Amino acid sequence: MTQPMEAKRLNFFMDKINGNFKKKDILSLDQFDPKSLSKLFRTTDTIIRKLKRKKRLTSLSGKIIALLFFEPSSRTFGSFASAVKRLGGQTIEVQDVGRNSSVAKGESLSDTIKVFESYSDAIVIRHPEKGSAKIAAQAATTVPVINAGDGTGEHPTQAILDLYTIYQKFKRLDNLTGLIAGDLLNGRTVHSLIKGLSLYKKNALYLLSPKSLGLPTELMNNLAKKIRLVEIENETDMPTNLHFWYWTRVQKERFKNLQEYKKVKNRFIIAPELVVKKGNQHMIIMHPLPRVGEIDPRVDDDERAVYLKLQVPNGVYTRMALLTLILSRL
Is 126 a catalytic residue? Predict the structure, then answer.
């Protein structure tokens, strides 16, 4: 069971990146601008080139990164661990923190963070409650905190790898039209990705979800000022000229009523037939994973499906770049 969230200091401020990542907390896509993302992508490109040439990377040599995951994870946890170790650093790895730490004894989130701040040079945190990453950043006064997912809030490093994947394909992040489907209410990956795309001009997104799982109203109203958002409720309403499909699972863990979950689970599924009917030659098919039945495995062999071929490895590369920019240099 998670501990009650501590009250936030009202004057807490998330630093904008403005091209300078050094020692910055990474909590939200609200901190980014196109210049900062461009710098991050250039660093990612450099890292990929060095890895292909079998260069030894040591930018985190002597650094220790604490991975504190209060919520289950395999990809994000493993991706950060791989990123740190590929850069010559070491990790303190605590999964299921609520049971495998003093949190089980009643320790507050802030105290847990202050303890691990003494052990490490940066903290990567995942927590089931929205706003937890900000509380962690408030508590850590000497090391940066990276949000690896805070409940239904955001998942900024997932959005970064998603944006990088789109950029790899189209060589731009403006003048794009995409589809985001599934659980838009609870999907923190979706929230961060839309914020990222809203930083660029002339982008449009079709939002496909059950009515009960639409984008949160406040977020919808704020983002609609920056990016064209079109809500649809059926696959028949999908345009055929989209640059990307971004599918997500319905998040069972966010439902208090299992019957309500079953009503909307796998409401929208990508099968080869849908790709033929609504797809086009140049688009890409994306998913943050894990998938739970919403993508037919037959789609995996389609060259347009990039969730396993590009998104997964890009998670390691972009996190390597991010950690390097925050803590060191190449």
Answer: yes
